[in-house]
Structures are given as structure tokens and as C-alpha cells.
Amino acid sequence: MTDIILLDGGMGQELVRRAGDKPTPLWSTQVMMDHPGLVAEVHADYAAAGATVHTTNTYAILRDRLEGTGMEGQFEALHAAAIKEAEGVGVLAGSIGPLGASYRPDLMPAHDVAVATYAEVANILAPKVDLIICETVASVAHARAVLEAAAATGKPVWLALTVDDTDGTKLRSGEPVADVFAVAGAASAILANCSAPEAIDAAIDVLATSGKPFGGYANGFTKISSGFLADKPTVDALTARKDLGPDEYAQFVMGWIAKGATIVGGCCEVGPAHIAKLADEIRAAGHNIVAP
Predict the structure, then answer these.
(1) Is the Cβ–Cβ distance between 121 and 155 less than 8 Å?
(2) What 3-state DSSP class applies to 266?
(3) Contacts by 231-237 with C-beta closer than 8 Å and gap 24+?
(4) Which of 64, 128, 135, 241 has the highest CB neighbour number within 10 Å of its CB?
(5) Are 116 and 175 in contact (CB under 8 A)?
(6) What angle do CA 266, 272, 277 make, to 5 degrees?
(7) Pairing of strands 167-171, 163-164
(8) What letter does residue 95 receive in the DSSP assignment?
(9) 245 phi and psi, to 5 degrees?
(10) Cα(162)–Cα(160) distance, rounded to whole angstroms?
């Protein structure tokens, strides 16, 4: 019997689906502002499904993401809105997404610039959350910078790495996942996220050697298309898999738990039904679902 921390699932795709709006480059941030209360509904559904950690809808609230959108002056207000939507739901993980764009390690700025940029976000989140989760980390340089910024707040920090969908032992940058360990001393846990579950299978084997609590939360995309790697992408450039329903997803995650993973959940295209099924399977296997 093992204690398992159950993360929630994806927020952005769930919001876009429920809102019915055409996706914009601001993705979940735009939906949050256009449909007040919808983020809170998604948080509540994940809580009802059994999740014990809830990720704030702050992934894309970064100054560089807001440039040219008309929301440049709402940086602080957007963070406040995301925190308000999550109030009272349970243990909060303050999400910090990648600078530039997801899956684009080539867009990482110089180390000092990155640390200062991430620190501004981390300092806004830290007083309001229980831990900080640095998501979709695509390179060693990215890991070093975001950890330096987040750890300075004194909050526990989880590092979530996005890996190559064809070789989960490598980051999106092409660097070995294991190379992150040398800069990850400040991390309380190391996870793999926003990658195909098959790739996370391989990443889990590497993370198991880190000496830290580890786990994973996969996405449900067929692949990361070239359209999504362009400037100011929108999520309609990505296609959801048809073979990753709640039952199939739970099988992947239970395999990670069998390898020692103790922090699991879902990313894009993994919704409340997936998390509910996963909670059932975790309990059926004799494990406890706990909060951190």
C-alpha cells in the first residue's frame, strides 16, 4: 500500500471545450476572463473526481505571452483572478509555464533575464499557494532558471519536465532527462508532464533514479504539430487522441505507480472523467490517495 498524491487534469482544453469559444493564443487565460466562474467549475469537478492537488490557471500568465494581446496591463489582475477561481478547492499548486511558448527551448532568454521574469511570477503566487509547480520544462537551462526563481520564495517546488514524444529519456531540447538532476537540488519532486503517455513511461524509469519523489501527468494529443510550434500558436493546431479514454489512461498511470511514482494526474486533454477513473483504480489497487 502506497500513499499517492493525485493531481487534477488539464485546465486549458477543458475550458475551451466548455466555453465553446474559438481558441486564442492566450488559451485558458482568455476563457477565464470571458467566462468568470468557469475555471472554478473545472476546479470543483476535479475535486469531486478525487484530485488532492489543484493547479492554478496561471500557466500562460507571463508578460511575454501577454504582449500584443491587449492584456499587457493586466498581469497582476490576471493572477488575482486565477487565484480567486481556485479559492477553497484544496491544496493549491501555483503553475508557472515556460517563457516564449510551450515546447520551444530555443526561445529561452539569458539566465539572468529568465530568473528575474520567473521570480516576478513566483513572488505573486507564493503567498497564495501551497506549492509551486514549474510546468513543461523543456531544457536544463529552463530547469535551472525557473527553480532558482521559485525556490527563493521558500515554498516547496515541483519540477515538471516535458520530454520527447518519441524518446522519453530526452527533454524536448534533446538533452538527457537525467542531466536535469544536477540542477534540481531545490526541487521537492520531479515529474514528467505534457508529453505522450508512452514517452512518460520511459521518463519514469529515469526519474526513478533521481532520489526524489517522482511521477507524471501526460497529455492526450496525437502529436505536437508544426503549427503549434509557430509564433502565437492556438490549441486548435493540436488534435486529441481517440484511443486515450479514462480506462486507457488509467492503465498507463497505474504502470507508473507500479514503478514507484507517487505523484500522478493528467495534462491537456485529460479531464475529470479520466481523474475519477484513475482515483478508482488507485484505490482498487490498495493504495491511499493523500494530499501532500
Answers:
(1) no
(2) strand
(3) 231/101, 232/25, 232/68, 233/25, 233/101, 234/23, 234/24, 234/25, 234/27, 235/12, 235/13, 235/16, 235/23, 235/27, 235/268, 236/22, 236/23
(4) 135
(5) no
(6) 80
(7) antiparallel
(8) E
(9) -75, 180
(10) 7
Among residues 62, 267, 233, 57, the alpha carbon closest in space to that of 146 is found at 62
> Is the pLDDT assigned to residue 81 strictly greater than 90?
yes
* Cell numbers found for residue 11: 485546465
Tell me the pLDDT band of 226, cut-offs 50, 70 and 90: very low
Reading the block at residue 24, the C-alpha cell is 486564442
Percent of all residues in the chain with a pLDDT value above 90, rounded to a whole number = 80
Q: Grid coordinates standing for 128? A: 497564495
C-beta contacts of 209-213 below 8 A and 24+ residues apart? 209/178, 210/181, 210/184, 211/181, 212/184, 212/187, 212/188, 213/188, 213/189, 213/262, 213/263
Q: How many CB atoms lie within 10 A of CB 94?
A: 28
Identify the weakest region by mean pLDDT among 23-32, 185-194, 283-292: 23-32
Quote the pTM value: 0.93
Where would I find the H helices in 98-139? 111-125
Higher-confidence position of 286 and 72: 286
- Condensed to tens digits (0 to 9), the pLDDT of residues 9-36 reads 999 889 988 998 876 667 688 889 999 9
